[in-house]
Write a structure and sequence with these properties.
Helix content is 56%, strand content 7%. It is mostly helical. Helix 5 (87-93) crosses helix 7, helix 7 (171-201) packs antiparallel against helix 8 and helix 9 packs antiparallel against helix 10 (280-292).
């Protein structure tokens, strides 16, 4: 079977990249990390206007009634541009948990939702700004909890909210895994694109560093890993809500590809990659955090084995 995105899906991806490319998402992420949400919420409203949070909501509640493939298209773009906030929880997980007016508010972008799913998701992302804190049974937990707790990725503000039922399985959980895998592939693609551009500009001994075989081989390895991860990601999306094995396999491969892209980007950029001012740092920390989000590699490998 030959799989291709539809013209509408490709246009949706292009719209998101155009929107986010001119939105200074790096500044929004740094402000979000400092607890200043105005920039991020403005960006959230723009994403709601193009339908990101309505994708998996049925039409009766103001949604688009789209499917997992459309979700992957959106989350790849969100990961590419390092958009802050509980995106996975609101766009992918909450539509399977909320009902009635709360679901309509989610689709319209008026409600931010976050989710706790111990033991794989023990902390609630951005519970201080979310209007709904849920567990995977659909129960709403009261209060924002305690925090924020320290994260390797500063824009990921994590809160400990007691009372969540233990249920790391089912459609809502798998959609969260799928969305995180898509974010990882998107972040890996940004790291690759940025590294290639830098390798063409940075010179050493009178030549662009991208002309040296060592750099070419490093970048080629990243291309290969991303190209192997992407079919698994979209294959899991096509499988829909029936194969937990597929989303777990996609999460493992996406995490490995993004980690390789991060290590390679740091090698290509050299010392500048360690500076907090460079946007590379936002992706390095986000990739490391997302690899363990919604289930570690060990958890998902064991799931595939079962």
């Amino acid at each position: 079977m030959k799989f291709r995105l539809s013209p509408e899906q490709r246009q949706f991806a292009a719209t998101l990249h155009e929107l986010l490319g001119g939105a200074d998402t790096a500044a929004a992420a740094r402000a979000w990390a400092a607890g200043e949400h105005d920039r991020g919420l403005k960006l959230w409203r723009a994403l709601a206007d193009v339908g990101v949070f309505a994708l998996l909501v049925d039409e009766d509640h103001g949604g688009l009634g789209a499917g997992p493939v459309d979700l992957v298209v959106a989350c790849e773009a969100l990961g590419y541009h390092a958009v802050p906030g509980p995106l996975v929880e609101s766009a992918a997980v909450a539509p399977a948990l909320l009902t009635g007016d709360r679901l309509t508010a989610l689709a319209e972008g008026d409600l931010l939702a976050t989710v706790v799913a111990p033991p794989e998701v023990p902390l609630a992302l951005d519970a201080d700004v979310a209007g709904a804190v849920l567990d995977l049974t659909g129960a709403e937990l009261t209060g924002a909890g305690t925090g924020p707790e320290r994260s390797i990725d500063p824009p990921r503000r994590l809160f400990r909210v007691p009372g969540a039922a233990v249920r790391p399985d089912g459609t809502a959980f798998d959609r969260g895994v799928l969305a995180v895998a898509a974010q990882l592939v998107g972040a890996g693609q940004w790291l690759l694109d940025t590294s290639v551009a830098y390798a063409k500009q940075r010179t050493q001994y009178g030549r662009a560093i991208g002309e040296y075989q060592a750099i070419k081989h490093l970048l080629a390895d990243v291309v290969t890993r991303l190209e192997l991860a992407r079919p698994l990601l979209y294959g899991a999306a096509v499988a829909g809500d029936t194969f937990a094995r597929d989303v777990s396999a996609a999460k493992v491969m996406a995490g490995e590809a993004a980690l390789l892209a991060a290590r390679t980007a740091l090698q290509v950029h050299g010392a500048i990659g360690y500076t907090a001012e460079h946007d590379l740092g936002l992706r390095l920390t986000k990739v490391r955090a997302l690899v363990g989000a919604w289930g570690t590699g060990s958890f998902h490998r064991a799931r595939v084995l079962r």
